[in-house]
Amino acid sequence: MTTHLRRSLGVCAAMVATLAAFVGSVTAHVEYVKPSGSQPANVVDFLVAAFTTPFIIATLIGGFLAVVGGIAGYLYLRPFPADIAAFRAAMDDYRDLLGWLLRLSMGMPLIAAGFEGYLFSPSVTLPFPTALRLFGISVGFFLLFGLATRVTAVWALAVYLVALPSHPQLLLAFEYVPGLLAVALVGGGRPSADAVIARMADDDKTVYSQFDPFYRRVAVPFAGRIKPYKELAPVILRVGIGIAFIYLGITQKLLRPGEALGVVAKYNLTSVVPVDPALWVIGAGLTEALVGVMLIAGAFTRGFSLVAFGLFTTTLFGLPDDPVVAHISLFGLVSALLITGAGPYSVDHWLKERVRTASAVAKREAGPTTERESVDETPTDD
Description:
Elements: H1 3-22, H2 30-33, H3 43-51, H4 54-77, H5 81-92, H6 98-116, H7 129-145, H8 149-163, H9 176-186, H10 193-202, H11 213-226, H12 233-254, H13 257-266, H14 277-297, H15 301-318, H16 325-340, H17 347-352, H18 358-366, H19 371-376
Helix pairs in contact: 1-4, 5-18, 6-7, 6-9, 6-16, 7-8, 8-9, 9-12, 12-14, 12-16, 13-14, 14-15, 15-16
Main location: membrane
Subcellular location: Cell membrane
Membrane topology: Multi-pass membrane protein
């Protein structure tokens, strides 16, 4: 098969996959954007009516086959090997900024939550708004500036977990669990106040190093103990984000059809894609659930992270009254997965040992390589 034909088929596969995912582009939390007059609907009646409609069934089956065909076509054709290899290399160059990206993803929405007076999710407000504001703003700024990063992340996570049993609405912001865990593992990174302080404390010539009892006795030994576990950060991120996607897809769409249909009508989404409103709701729910399953499995992680990134973008720009700050955390964590890839314990990790990588294909198409170049070739995650 010629390179030109493979690339053409690759473009077709990408277009089909994009169209299949487009119906699921209503990824806002229904709780945040539902119209005030929306009425709940019977879940069983809604699903029975939808899944006995031939057009909806045919569309869903066609979308599923398109996704499966796109994945199979990618594995067989390996289109655009040089482009994919260059993209992965570019993402790898940002690994030293991963801590900074994670801190932004957690710190910015927490600051916004503090100013708005809610706890993690806009759906959770408590009778002591001053305390909520102090918590959100202080924790958010500590994370944003990277000061006492790990301690702050653990403290924020503890507050979330303690409040969760009495306020199950916090599950709408479940991404804080993997995000804060990843911050605790990775640390402040650079640029951060922690990095500056560590630099000063590590230099015996500075006056500060003589008065800081914490750095050498606590920080350095702790960093050494936790270092072997840093490679689990992408695993924690993709599994946690995957759970969040599945939860939102099922509970906010499939189990709340009345409110979801109200959102479709509110934004006149059937004028964007003229299909049955029920197909919008089911398509959105199943798309989010599929993305979640693939992230948990670590299958084509960067590819499905790009799909999620695109879905968030259409939500942020397409729904004018959606609380943007409520999505910053997911937006940032999905971006972090673009950098890290799947990590260990993933389908991607298994595939890279058995399927030719994009960089290997790119080198082969570029021409013969020396024996040294062949030996140095290292596979990378999808």
